[in-house]
């Protein structure tokens, strides 16, 4: 038997037992060739091969000098990762202060496991959560410098339509938990991004008055105090909730036709 799928009669010698009238011969007929189209074959092969579905990505992009914003970012990642089909990626924005200045300010070293992000990489995100401490009721200069580096993306409107949210850190209760996020909305507006606040979706946790708690309808927050105060469990839970909430929004938008 040859490789072609059947026995082919020789042109020089009549096969044994073959009919003298080839038009009426039914014995020893070659096996018919499978004439399915390439498209049909490809469809069958595709059905037999499991489809790998990539996860939607939410970038958690933050600046943290003393670790308070970073603590919210890590807990927020847990919330995002808990939603099926969504994955969070932590990024830092570049530092603008020199190592000498940071040393004088007693800022701890940055975690090398969290990479710095470039403006161009934002295009790869399906949604973004930006975190930063306040400076006089507005975002810290390091985060503003990063937004200033997105000029080419603004020119081409590469971020238009992407959902985004904020989370913040302030030193005092009246230090900008709301205004820091509020004044940052202008950055999203010029890019055409969709601001996603959490509102009061955290439920009862938004109304508790028995302890000091950062956060607002604009997003999660933490009070740093003199720098020694750590985020409370309520503040961390709010951050985790924001991660889950943003993941649900991104997933819903991705399912639209």
Describe the structure.
Its cofactor is FMN. This is NAD(P)H dehydrogenase (quinone). By secondary structure, this protein is α/β, with parallel strands linked by helices. The chain has one domain: Rossmann fold (3-Layer(aba) Sandwich). The chain contains 7 helices and 7 strands. The protein has helices at 38-48, 68-81, 99-104, 141-148, 151-156, 179-191, 233-254; strands at residues 56-62, 86-92, 127-135, 138-139, 163-170, 194-195, 221-223. Strands 1, 2, 3, 4, 5, 6 and 7 form a 7-stranded mixed sheet that branches. Strand 3 and strand 4 form a beta hairpin. The model is unreliable at 1-34 (pLDDT under 50).
- Spatial shape: globular
Could you spell the SSE succession in H and E letters?
Answer: HEHEHEEHHEHEEH
CATH superfamily: Flavodoxin domain
Task: Kindly report the CATH topology.
Answer: Rossmann fold
- The CATH architecture would be 3-Layer(aba) Sandwich
Radius of gyration: 31 Å
> Strand portion, in percent?
5-15%
Largest sheet: 7 strands, mixed
EC number: 1.6.5.2
Family: Belongs to the WrbA family.
InterPro entries: Flavodoxin/NO_synth, Flavoprotein-like_sf, Flavoprotein_WrbA-like, FMN_Rdtase-like_dom
GO molecular function: FMN binding; NAD(P)H dehydrogenase (quinone) activity
Map the helices and strands.
Layout: H1 38-48, E1 56-62, H2 68-81, E2 86-92, H3 99-104, E3 127-135, E4 138-139, H4 141-148, H5 151-156, E5 163-170, H6 179-191, E6 194-195, E7 221-223, H7 233-254
Parallel strand pairs: 1-2, 1-3, 3-5, 5-6, 5-7
Antiparallel strand pairs: 3-4
Helix pairs in contact: 2-7
């Amino acid at each position: 038997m040859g490789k072609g799928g059947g026995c082919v009669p020789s042109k020089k010698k009549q096969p044994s037992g073959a009919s003298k009238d080839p038009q009426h011969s039914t014995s020893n007929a070659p096996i018919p060739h499978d004439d399915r189209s390439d498209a049909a074959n490809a469809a069958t092969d595709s059905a037999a091969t499991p489809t790998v579905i990539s996860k939607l990505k939410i970038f958690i992009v933050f600046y943290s000098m003393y670790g308070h914003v970073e603590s919210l970012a890590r807990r927020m990642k847990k919330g995002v990762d808990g939603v099926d089909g969504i994955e969070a990626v932590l990024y830092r924005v570049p530092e603008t202060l020199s190592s000498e200045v940071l040393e004088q300010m007693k800022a701890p070293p940055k975690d090398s496991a969290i990479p710095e992000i470039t403006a161009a990489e934002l295009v790869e995100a399906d949604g973004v959560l930006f975190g930063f401490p306040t400076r006089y009721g507005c975002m810290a200069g390091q985060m503003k410098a990063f937004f200033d580096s997105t000029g080419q993306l603004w020119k081409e409107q590469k971020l238009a339509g992407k959902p985004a949210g904020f989370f913040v850190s302030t030193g005092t209760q009246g230090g900008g938990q709301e205004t820091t996020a509020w004044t940052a909305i202008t950055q999203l507006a010029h890019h055409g991004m969709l601001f996603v606040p959490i509102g009061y979706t955290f439920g009862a946790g938004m109304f508790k008055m028995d302890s000091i708690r950062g956060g607002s309808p604009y997003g999660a927050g933490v009070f740093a105090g003199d720098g020694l105060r750590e985020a409370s469990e309520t503040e961390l839970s709010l951050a985790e909730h924001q991660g889950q909430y943003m993941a649900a929004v991104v997933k819903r938008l991705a399912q639209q036709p």
